[in-house]
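Suppose you are handed a protein chain with no further information: no name, no annotation, nothing but its sequence. What can you learn? This example shows the usual starting point.
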Amino acid sequence: MLPGPVAPASRIVEIDIVRGFALFGVLLVNMYNFGAESIAWNSNGDQLAFAFMRVFLQSKSWILFAMLFGFGFALQLQRGDVRNFRFLFAYLRRLAMLFAFGTAHALLFDGDILMLYAELGLGLLLVRRLPTRVILVLAVGLMLIFPAGRLALGPEREEVESVAEVRAELEITRQTDVYATGSLAEVMADNASAIPADPLEDIDSPESGLAVFAMLLLGFLIGRSGALRDIPGHVVHIARARNWGLGLGLAAMAAERVLTATAGYAVFRPQQAGPGAQLAGDLVFAFGAPALALGYAATLVLAAQTPHGRAVLAPLAAVGRLALTVYLTQTLMFSTLFYGYGFDQVFRLGPVAITIWAVVIFSAQVVACQWWSRHFRFGPAEWLWRSLTYLKWQPLRLRNELTPRGES
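A reasonable first move is to predict its three-dimensional structure. Written in structure tokens, the prediction is:
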């Protein structure tokens, strides 16, 4: 007998809060990909907005999202063991449906992450019974591939262009890029090249598929530990994770900024750093970003342990419960804003404008998610995903459901 999805009342609220927080970062960083990361935007306000995104959210958001996927996999395994069902077949259908969602999403936005999660979810099956120490070593090894790979390839220096040159190039891009000039069909045809996701693409990047798999493994270990199924009993450990995560993560981001200013180091932009500075910066970023992401998660979990904290963070929990729907509708909204067949703002908005639009879009989603959660068990995409996974149409309208707390 196959299980059904867990009832809303049995979810781990703290995990939904963290997921909601991560979704805002994912939205903001994704929107920066449409021209706001350019040095053409060099006003003081734009530089400040970019620095905020770069230091506090870039990479940290998808890292949190990936860890939560691995965490959810661990919970599914535990449910499978307890309920004695054919976990493998249900799980494979779940991944297949996730891949289908990702395929459709990638046609609209080539930065899709769902296909990659679905593909790497197969890898989690292979390692799920390995000892914790072995999985941890594997995760660290995967995290080291980025700095080691860039060191082996040698410094990839590019000529640093002037602001005037970059602005001229940006203007040309506005006239030629498919996102600015293409119809919906032309955009989809161009994005089709991103299907399927290649886990081995750009392995010398801090955001490669191998780096994503490392974060899935860390999330899986956290889920398998059971710490978040008994938060009151693990408050000391979670507080330690918060202190070390925030301390090391912020220190690492500060060190990376110092290397940028003094040695010309850059993770995502053209750089002038030598091999030593590059390796130091890459190591700091590769391990500092996950540390900071864990610090964020622990901070939110602990904040939710008081009635006031839980009330303040409740809007994020509503977003986190509808994570797939929110992720997909974010793309529908920002692609309408950016693409030529919509409001044609691609490559026209700088960091300040992008940040404002991200806050507006996310605020609208918060309001919508709170309303939806009061009436329905799942978001629309979550309902379809679960129905196809469990081969049974799930009840959508919310009824009084009193079940033990503990799933997510």
